[in-house]
Write a structure and sequence with these properties.
251 residues, alpha/beta, five-stranded parallel beta sheet, five-stranded antiparallel beta sheet
């Protein structure tokens, strides 16, 4: 498999290359700018797969597609949320939010191997995407959820949820009244529905509501522990890869 990385932050590119090496995938080339990528594509066979950062040092990586007809599958590495990525009508297999989680990377590679996409032309309305990224549209996030309680449906207001969490293949909402409600959804689906101003995914297992954080405590291995006002059924730990973004989110 011929794999390249296009990423302007060299430490991030090297880290991604190491994570791929652990999956026995060798990266043949690392590129760091739009200009460098355009020059490379003009003089080399296109790879099977590109790990592509959206924001490069000299512009958005979509500018590459204005010059080159790239015939590769793409896995985006990005800080943008899924809402923005829905606009990217490309030959994309997946996307990975920075900092990249090793399990999510492994899942993306499994998806790539299963789909085995044929090379095909990438089409993109670059101007529309650029507008979306530079002037994000206002979006209405979900304000209410429903959970089945016996023969009844319970209405749960999003602002009353201290955290969402996964357990035994179920997704639960822990509310201010100390109840845990089973929802008919997944944490992945919640990414599209929760306001990023209010909720943050601190780990693969937990989303927390900033308005219900009681305390934040230093934890082992450069991680953080979160205490909520009511929920204490389990420890909530900010994974090491998400600590930096979590601190930025708090501000």
């Amino acid at each position: 498999m011929n794999v390249i990385i296009i990423e302007d932050e060299k430490p991030a590119a090297r880290r991604l290359s190491r994570l791929l090496a652990e999956l026995e995938i060798e990266v043949s080339t690392m590129l760091h700018s739009v200009d460098e990528a355009v020059d490379w594509f003009q003089n080399n066979p296109h790879p099977d797969l590109i790990f592509l950062d959206i924001q490069l040092s000299d512009g958005l990586s979509f500018e590459i597609f204005e010059v080159i007809e790239v015939k590769s599958a793409i896995i985006f590495t990005t800080a943008y949320d899924e809402y923005a990525l829905q606009a990217f009508k490309l030959n994309s297999i997946d996307y990975l939010l920075k900092p990249i989680d090793d399990e999510e990377l492994e899942n993306a590679m499994k998806k790539f191997r299963e789909l085995k996409p044929e090379h095909q032309k990438i089409s993109v309305d670059f101007n529309d995407i650029k507008k979306l990224l530079t002037n994000p549209l206002e979006r209405e996030y979900k304000k209410r959820f429903t959970a089945k309680v016996g023969q009844h449906l319970k209405i749960i207001n999003a602002d009353e949820v201290e955290c969402f969490y996964s357990e035994n293949k179920g997704t639960y909402a822990a509310t201010l009244d100390g109840r845990n409600y089973l929802l008919d959804t997944t944490l992945e689906n919640l990414e599209e529905e929760l306001s990023p101003q209010t909720f943050f995914r601190v780990s693969r297992k937990f989303y927390v509501n900033i308005n219900h954080i009681k305390d934040i405590i230093s934890y082992t291995n450069s991680r953080l522990q979160i205490k909520l006002n009511r929920f204490n059924d389990q420890e909530i730990i900010v994974s090491r890869e998400r600590v930096k973004d979590f601190k930025l989110w708090l501000e």
